[in-house]
Each structure stands twice: as structure tokens, then as C-alpha cells.
Amino acid sequence: MFLNEALKSILPEGKEFEILHLRSPSIECHPLIAKQTSSSDDSVTVKTQHLFVLFHNEKTIFGLEIYVYINLKAVNSSTQDGERVIFISKADTTGHADCKVNYRSVTKVLIEYILSLDPNSYLQKVIPKRFDYGKIDGTLITKKTSSIKALRILANRNLPSYSAEPKSQTQFYNSYRCRANLETKVCLFTRPAPQYLFPESSKNPNKRVIDGDRLLRWWLSILDDILLETFQEDTKARLRIPGENPTSIRRYLKDVKYGGWEVGDIFGTKHKDTAIYHIPLFPDDPKARFLRQLVEENRARKTILETFWIELQNRQEFKLSVTVSVIGIQGLTAVKSLQRPPPCDVILSSSRKEFNAIKRYVTGENYDTAAGAREAYLNVRDYLSVRRNQKMMTIVGQFTTGCKANDRDSSSQRTVITANTLQPRKKLKK
Amino acid sequence: MSDEAALSAALSDLADCEEDVEKAEEDIELYRLKKLAPLYLHRDEIIQKIPGFWRVVLSQHDEFADHIKASDFEYVDAIKSITVHWKTFQDYEIEFSFNAIEGKLKDQTIRKHFLLKDEQLTSEPVDIGVPATAERKSFVDWFNWTGVSNAKEFPDGGELAALFSEDIYPYCVKYYTEAQRDVEDEESAGSSSEGELILD
């Protein structure tokens, strides 16, 4: 699955777009779920961030932020077993597009693209959780090296007599291998907000801000399609709406096409289980914020899942009566050939600092007027050109009736969106 | 002495004392400048022999990047040297030497004067031979920044001046070496909101 192929099939015919697909370096992080015992184990969690930004007519129009975690169960054994957790963090539009774009399809195609990537592509040159600075060669510059010492090291390296073998940085980073087809979880927290990625964009009268109910249905229909087209048939699909009873939650599942949807979540089945040992800690996620609060209040070990979900809905960050939901998918993908992303598909940032610098060009503007959307585009374009000698990928849309398609009328578009490399085994709802 | 009179005298003494403290602090500032001036001068001479020094420093500096357009890096890369000449901390000039950019910028050295008075920083426009841009204010427009004009000026130009004089110039060596790290930082350098949960 190539990014440009996938996108042009759903972008309006004849219109030109540019896509930024930015990827952070992979980094070892804490386990997504707190461990019950402190016994040392050899599991490793690797975190990578993706940012997709779509531009049209030199303006930002859409963005999607996704975190991919590869959790390797036992790196010292030969099983290469683990799981892939895809956290869909934020999707947002600016309202500054000069043509109609089906953002539902764009979001779906980008998630499918992420699903089509070989998890091994995240496991090279992984930044370790902690460097053992004591063991790092004294001729290398790290954050522990003083300015003066760094200058002496640099001075030495530039001596005409300096002939030490070129230091391989790779020895300080880790590399792992895993099975290509890992069990995959897709996690999402839906909550209505005026803006997620583009500050002040809600003040743009052309941006459509939707309520919690419609947001939930929007995401549900995207994930429903992905389940049918990209996952194997025994895949779990779960929906939980904190504060709602199962009967009302089932109302939302009336129109889904995949047969495996149930009320619940993929984080733990027993109500009496301790929440902290089952709920993952994602960045900027209401569930994680609540977990942190429980720890502060010394209630973390006492709060069971049942209480967790009830209390979550009552947190101040949600307005009363607003619909928020937790959606989860767990299963194996039906993607035939998982791939390493072709170099043309992705801008691999050289460091997390660079990733954040480029991201800030996009998320640091004000989007109430088109000027901010244009400023973001120009900065991203110019940065890539001046600093990386790179260009964003240009895509000319080929979708013929897309311009008048309704976002939620998925039935009329389903045939067009099928991507080539995906071999769906459909389990249709009876 | 009545209680009131005693308090009055104490407050008056405190005012006198504060005047002396302020005077001492001014003296320390001037001493600092005097002590550092020859060292900075010597440092400027050494830096001239390190190719690309300012390019590295200014590319490393996130806050500086926030002030300029990405396209401005072309001008930033042409900076040969930066020097701050202080009369006092409130009255100083920043000197820039540029390499020529063909068709865009001529080889030149300019000084831009800044004066902090009554908590307001002002400056005079300096012509670097690049026509002012209309809408998107660029780094080259900063040289025309005055802090008092009603016309649209380079945004937060005073903050950028302070960034040069208080941070980039004094600590340029730190930024230079930070940019030369062989090994990238680990997770603990990330934001605390993403850190591991510590249970008891």
C-alpha cells in the first residue's frame, strides 16, 4: 500500500494536495499498562509517533496524529512475540479547504496505511529507555557531557592525526525483531472538542464542529469499515460509553456492518479487576489523566474497573451530558504483505526535537483565518526544502463523485475505497 | 518614640537601604560587563575560525526558530558572526556580519541599536538592502523593527533582541555543543505527562 495511491483514490478528481507524513524516531518507553509485580522481566515497549497533515492550495486542511506502540513480550527469547497498539490520538480539520474533501475516507485510508506497516519497521535504531552513561565511551558527546568536555572531544576529533575507527552510533541504540503479524489493538477515545490539532480553528465559520454523538458515529463507521476490510474475522470490536447502560450503547451498534461489535472494552473483562493494571497510559488521554489522579489520591490500588468507568464520566474535563466513548479493536490484520514504508512515503525526523519543531509549524498557528493555515503550509514546505532538501508528496485526486459525497453516507463510497494490498475476509452482520 | 514614628523611621531606612542595594546591583552588572568584555572579544575572534558556528547555534535554538519563518533559515545560514556590544544592559548594539546570498543579500556588517527605557525596548531601522515584505514578516524585517512604529512590524521584535543579548550570544557555546551530541536523549527527557506511573 503506497500512501499516494491510497489517498488519490479518495481525494476529489483533478484537485491537487500535498501530504506531510512525519515519523518520530522510535523510543523505548514505560509499559503501557502498569505491571502488578515489580519482578524484572524482559518485555520492552517501543513508541513511535506519526503525524499526517494534508494541504490544499497552500493551506493546512486536515491532520491526524497516531501513536504506535510495539510491545515485545520477551526480547531475550526467540519467540518474537508481542503486540502492536495503535492509539489514534487526534484528528482535526481546519475548515480552510477550497473543495469538498471526504475526511472520513482520508482518516480511514491513513489508519489502514498504518495497519499495513510491518511492525519491524519501528524496531531499528530504537532509543533506549536509559543510556548507561557510565558505559558510554568517553569520546562520545551525550547530554551528560559538559560544554568544555564536548569541545575537547571535538578538538581531538579534528586533529590531523585522529584516526580512530568511525564510532558507530548504532551500538548505543537497540534493535529488535518481532513476528510480522502481531496481534493488533486499535484504541480511541472519542470526545467532542472545538479543536484538537488546530488552535482557534473552531472560530472559522467554515469548520464543521460536531457533537459527541455524531463524533462517535463518525469514528464507529470508520472503524467498522476497517474491521471488514483490514482485520480477520474473529477480531474483537468493543464500544464503551462511560455513564451509559448497555442498552443505550447498543443503539449505536445498530447500524454497524461488522458482526463482532459488542458493548465493553478491550482492557479487561472482570469488573472487580484493579483499573490501574488494565488501563493503558496513552499521551494526552482522559483515561490516563484519571489514572494519574487516582495515583495522586492514593486510590490507584483500590479502584476497580467498574468504578473507574463510572467515575471517568463524572470528571470535570467533560461537560455534563456530553457523549464520550472508548472504542477498541483487538485482533490480527488480514493484510497480506506487511511492508516497510517506502522512503518517499515518510519524512523520518532525525530526532524528537526535529519532529516537534516541524509539528509546531503546524500546531503553533492560529487557524481562525486562512492566513494561519497558509503560514503553517509555507513553514513546513520551506523547512523541508531548506533544512532537509525534501518535498512533501503531491497527490492529484482521482475520486470522481467524491466532491458531493456526504461524509457519513459510506455505502456510496465503499467500493472505491478498497485498497489493493488488503485482502478482506468479510464477516458481515447477520 | 511612638510606635508610629518607629515604623515610619524603619520604612524610611528600608528605602535608603534599597537604594544602596539597587546601586550595588548596577555596579555588579557593570563589573560583570567589564570583566566579560575582553573574554567575549577573544571568544568572537576564536569563533570566527569555526566554520558554520552560528548556523549550528541558531539551528539548535527552538525559541529562535519560533520567531522566524522556516524560509528565513536561508538568511540565518548566511550569518558569519554575531556580537553584542553593551554600553549597559539597557543600552546595547547587536552586530551581524552576513555572507552574501547571490541576488538576495550583499556581504555586509551592520549594527542594530537597542535601548530599554521605562520598561520599553526601542530600536532604529537598519537597512540591509532587502525590501520589506508586505504580509509575512520575515527575519530581514526585524532589522527595520523600532518598537514604536504604528505600521505592521516584525512581531515580538523586542523579545528577539532580548533573546540574542540575554541568551543566544552569552550561551552560544552551550548551544553549539548541545547540537553536537552523538547520542540522542532518552525518554526521561520527555514531558512529565507521559511518564511512568509510580505506585507508592
TrEMBL record, chain A:
GO terms for biological process: DNA damage response; regulation of DNA-templated transcription. It catalyses: L-lysyl-[histone] + acetyl-CoA = N(6)-acetyl-L-lysyl-[histone] + CoA + H(+). PANTHER family: ALTERED INHERITANCE OF MITOCHONDRIA PROTEIN 6 (PTHR31571), HISTONE ACETYLTRANSFERASE RTT109 (PTHR31571:SF2). Keywords: Acetylation, DNA damage, Nucleus, Transcription, Transcription regulation, Transferase. One of its GO terms (molecular function) is histone H3K56 acetyltransferase activity. The keyword Transcription regulation applies. GO terms for cellular component: nucleus. This is histone acetyltransferase. It is found in: Nucleus. PROSITE patterns: RTT109_HAT. It is an enzyme of class 2 (transferase). It comes from Torulaspora globosa. Its main location: nucleus. Its EC number is 2.3.1.48.
From TrEMBL, chain B:
GO terms for biological process: nucleosome assembly. GO terms for cellular component: nucleus. Residues 7-34 form a coiled coil. The keyword Lipoprotein does not apply. It comes from the Eukaryota. Keywords: Coiled coil. Belongs to the nucleosome assembly protein (NAP) family. PANTHER family: TESTIS-SPECIFIC Y-ENCODED PROTEIN. This is Uncharacterized protein.
